[in-house]
Amino acid sequence: MYRNTILFASLSIALFSLLGFAMYKEENPEWKSYQKEYNVLLSEKAGDPKLANLPLGLKQNWNSVLNRIDRCMTCHMGVSNTKFFADAKQPYKAHSFLGEGEFMRKHPFEKFGCTICHQGDPQANSVERTHGFVDHVDRQPLTGIFVYSSCSKCHTNLYAPDVDFKEAPVLMKGKALVMQKGCGGCHTIKQMGYGGIMAPELSAFGTRTELAFHLVHDFSHVENPVKSMKNWEWEHFKDPQKITPGNRLATPPQPPTIMPNFHLTDDETTALTVFVMSFKDKKVENIPMDYLPPPYPATVQAPAAPPAKVEPKKRSAKKP
Question: Which CATH architecture has domain 158-298?
């Protein structure tokens, strides 16, 4: 009897401790600490002590046109504040390319939000669920140079050979590599008018989910500890035979890849990976027409000189 009482008391203490810890975590989420620090920084930079005591709360951008709720700004409080946070540390740093005349000025946050370009889980509000490789997310968060793979959701004509999309030089480098290496001889890439049939179609590669990709690809030869679609593709471009050597014991047997090793540099490999990830399925992305920009002009060429005017010769008066 005494032993049962001790056991019951111990379990009760453990249960109440767990409940207390859960309540503490609920009342003190990590985003509150970021907002407190941001408010202090803002008050110091603006010279107004009252700003340090601004109320805390979830921040979100509800876009009914895109049917998307982004809560990234709950932690990234200084994302549009270039006056005070252009050189701040993350997560308070202002977004890149927001200077006068830079391209992000054409992409206001209230219209585009965050995850239309950066992907990830738009409603999550913890670091673990929004950064790095996130297991539960179909579209992994994109950072750095890989964000440019989202440009094609709206800028659909950047694949034309005579279009120079200056805002995303990495995409232009990837496009040049695809044309130089003859990728369309084996792959179908509808955006570029290629109809190769010897290798998998790439036209909607960037729309595939992580799960769909994992189900049909072997990651056993990928060195990167993060087994993501992006990393598989990068290492595959770098050394195709290493990543897809084939498997004779599989059912049915898997032959090795026929893709040659182009001996790409790391920069070329990254550019090609970003470019291939930009191939999107319009039906799946479902971007409203209002978001599509006017077509980019072809590479500017000097106008031809107008033909020289030929003055008619004056007839000399005949002498009588």
Answer: Orthogonal Bundle (1.10)
